[in-house]
Amino acid sequence: MPASQTSNRALGGSLETGFTATKAPGPALRPHPDGHPRQTPSPGTPPPVPALPNTPPSPRGHGPRSAPSQTLRRCRPAASSAPRLPPPGGPHPWAPAFAPGHLRDVGATPAGSEAAGEPGQEEEAEDRLKEHMDNLLDKSAKTRQAALQSLRLAFSSKTLSEFLLERRLMLTDSLEKCLKKGKGEEQALAGTVLTLLCLQMGSGPEGEEVFRSLKPLLVSVLTDSMASPGARQSCATALGMCCYIAAADLEDLVSCLSCLEGIFSPPSAGEGGSAPTQHGPLHCSALQSWSLLLTICPPSHIKSVLDNRWLKLPPLLSSSSVALRILAGETIALVFELAQDVEEDLCHQDTEFLRAQLKVLATESNKYRAKTDRRKQRSIFRDILRFIESGEYQEETIRFGLECMYLDSWARQRTYQAFKEVLGSGIRHHLQNNELLREIFGLGPPLVLDAAALKASKVSRFEKHLYNSAAFKARTKARSRVRDKRADVL
Questions:
Q1: For the segment 208-258, what is each residue's pLDDT rounded down to a tens digit?
Q2: Which residue range forms the structural domain that includes residue 225?
Q3: How far from the centroid of its chain's Cα atoms is residue 170's Cα?
Q4: Distance, CA of 207 to CA of 202 (rounded, Å)
Q5: Which residue ranges does the record assign to the Interferon-related developmental regulator N-terminal domain (predicted)?
Q6: Phi, psi dihedrals of residue 204, rounded to the nearest 5°
Q7: Is the pTM of this model over 0.85?
Q8: Which phi and psi angles does 212 have, rounded to 5°?
Q9: What CATH number does residue 242 fall under?
Q10: Number of folded domains that form the chain
């Protein structure tokens, strides 16, 4: 074999094994300042790859170990893997994140299933809430308003009854100072946070204590004509909601009804008077709270309302505010429903005139009002007139999670609308987890579902499409009977 081929084969073998064919002189050694020799690469030798910091060498000797990933995927190991031991003194890495006293987020799965998140995140959320509570006593009005906004968002989207139980007195004192010394927006936010605090505490002694301590202040701000309309509106809602949740005596209920009645029906707006035109949102909040409290009145007090007080409602149908007109019509329907429950007949000389007025509102086509307002008014007053004439109520279904709730009466609809206005988008979370709301609407204790049940309850996209198509077709047929035919005329 030629010598060149022999040398090439030897060179090829050397490339495969990682050794050179001929022994080249090694790099020179020079002393290091610490006393150890240090290699100096010879000219033409590529520089070595720098090792990653704090990275131990690979056990196989093929260079440094790869850097750890910054994003961790928290999931359970396979069944064949050895179980990890919990750290000494710390929680088990697979323990549920929502232990007693921790927060429960809106996006969290129902009780009994695997909760998402870490206890550290829940502790941070609790620390932020404590910081917001401390900021309620800050000297800056902007800081106090920002803290109230954060508390309003947290209370409406989470269930915090256990967290707030031991802090309710401090929070009540802070809200009292905001209502007394605050102005405008701060008072309005304080009233909303107070409503949510009472909703979190429930109808027990704690909620009753919160209501009794701040009821005189709410009445004072509500009846103060010099206070801002926004603050009075918030206090009207807070007075009605807190009384509905936590009032234990009939005297508190009657006094709140009288206070609210004096707001939406002043002496000038009594029988034969003109409807109030100023502060429409304030009158709407007062009337909504009054009608909410009317649903829990004993039959004896309802009879006194049916005798003369309900006659203050028809003048509100002539208000310039479409929201106040609609709310007045719904309250009149509620009064007729309560009269049927206590077997009382509303035979009055003005009843026929009231029905004629409802028919006018159900078919109104005045051009000086917005088209959307006219359509909404006609739709609602058609339902009101149908109920008064034939006792038929348009049932509504509310779905949340795996459950659904039926609104089959004006009293139930008024209660749901009141809580929805306060909670906003958090109403579905509270319907699933808040024991007070579930007791009010007769939903029973919160459901306990595991991961398998949640997965089995999900429907496919095709099944959901078929259901939506059938529901759309049925809804179109139902609405075509009451739809305004004049909209089809060109």
A1: 999 999 999 999 999 998 999 999 999 999 999 999 999 888 899 999 999
A2: 126-248
A3: 24
A4: 5
A5: 116-389
A6: -85, -165
A7: no
A8: -65, -35
A9: 1.25.10.10
A10: 1
